[in-house]
Structures are given as C-alpha cells and as structure tokens.
Amino acid sequence: MAGHTGPVKRSVALISLGSAIAIAGAAAALVVRLALEERSDPARCSEPLVAIGPRCCAKGQGAKSDHCAGVPTQCGAGMHLAQAPEPGCAADERRIPYPGGRQKLFFADWEEQGETARELRSGAFELDWTEVTIERWRACVDAEMCRAVRETEPGRPVTGINAEEAARFCLFAGGRLPTGDEWLMAAAGASARRFPWGPTGLVCRRAVFGLVDGPCADGATGPELAGSRPDGASPEGALDLSGNVAEWTRERDGRHVARGGSFHSKAAAELKSWSAVDVRGGSPDVGFRCAYDAGPARR
User: Which residue segments constitute the domains of the chain, with CATH numbers given?
Assistant: First the structure.
C-alpha cells in the first residue's frame, strides 16, 4: 500500500486544484454577471407605469401608435387620475421653492461648448415641478384665456404653444414664464450640475429622450407623461428639466429660448442643464412650466 500513497495523494491534489479552479471560475462569472446587472439600464418606465411601444402608459391602459388610451387602474407617484379631456394619469400640481440670490455658473473647459461663465441673479421664486399638462391647459381654455389644442391625454405636456401663449397661461395661473437665470438655478444649481440630477447618468430611466429613433425607444411622435421619470429629479424635487419637452424661458435681453432638450434629443449636449435653442413659434417638442414670485429681489 505504501507504494500507492504518492499517486493517490497526487490525484487528490489534482482534484482539489481542479475544484478550486472551477469554484474560482464560477465566482468570477458571478461577479461579472452581478456587475453587468448593476450597470444595465433598468426599464425606462417607473412602476406602476408600463412600457408600450415608445410610451409609458398606466396599468389598465393600452396604446395605439404612441397614444395611451383607456381608464387607468393605477397611476404613478405624484400623479392622479384625470377625467378630461379623456381618462388618464396626470401629474399633481405642485411648486418647488428656490431662495434666489446671486450665484456664479462656471463650466469646466471640456463642458463649455460655447458657454461662458455667468452670474445668475434672481429673487426668491417657485417653479412648477413638472411641465404644464394638458389638464391644466384645459382649465385656461375653459376660461377662454387660452386656445384649444388637439392633444387629449391629460397628463402629457402641452406643446405647439409659442412663448406669448405660454406667458398668457402663466398669468392665468398666477405666475409668469421663468427667466433664464431662474431656470438655470433650478436645473444646474450652485455646483453647475451637468444634468439636473447630477454630473453623470444620462440614461432612459432619468430623462425622456431618444424616443423617435433610439436609443430609448422608436416611433414617438410626441412627449411622455409629465413627471414619468422620478429617477431624474433634481435635488429639490423638480422633474423633466432635462428632456420630454424643451421649455420656454425669457432671457435678460427679452428673447425667448427653449431650454433642456426634448424627447427628440439624442446627444448629451442637447440635454445638459444649460442647453438652449432659439425657436420661432410653437413646436411639437417645446412646452413650458411657470415661475411664481416668492419674495423681494436679492441684492
């Protein structure tokens, strides 16, 4: 028996080594899989909304083209069941307060892309936490202060509205269009955040973009429900400052520009907190939110 001790020991050693290699390989594979799962982009629609084509529709609804239809059985967080112009989920009406003041907005060299450092100035103000929805717009139509639009989903942002019409609605709502400085304070903050939620992480669950021909979906002809991307909230709680619809602001020189990018946008440059485009008249990817004075101007 003594003559067999060496080979048996070597066999045991080889088996042990093979087992260790197999275990190590399995562990490595598990680590890779978990890492990939951690890095993978979750579904763009937050619970309980459901992805149907390019849209995020409420449970109980179906979709035809990119229109969510039917009576919702459950709406997302911060939304309620609206009944007009047709049943659907719509964002609650809510305002976010900002202290205003003066702050410098600086850009890293690689982020400038034609932007220059500027000083933002504003009194204390409040800002709608989402874009103005069809439901809210309809109240202005009923009061004969705004014109009717074709869109009937109550929770979608109103679009195709020029800056003067947007300003008229805000007056009806007790506010006004935000200034460019106010909008930038909300979107970029004192630290000049690249995106409203932070410096990185432009993914489909945080902003409504790339819905026409990718990267988030294909076939969209209009925006998503306002407030459908809660993971893209700013630190103060504002939603959709990047993507969905670009938003009218009034600049210091009296011009109106549309800020923040839209569901059409594909490149990060179009969706940065300080992105802006000159638009003439209404556009299917431009909407707005209102600002409200909340205190005296800061000096």
Answer: 50-293 (3.90.1580.10)
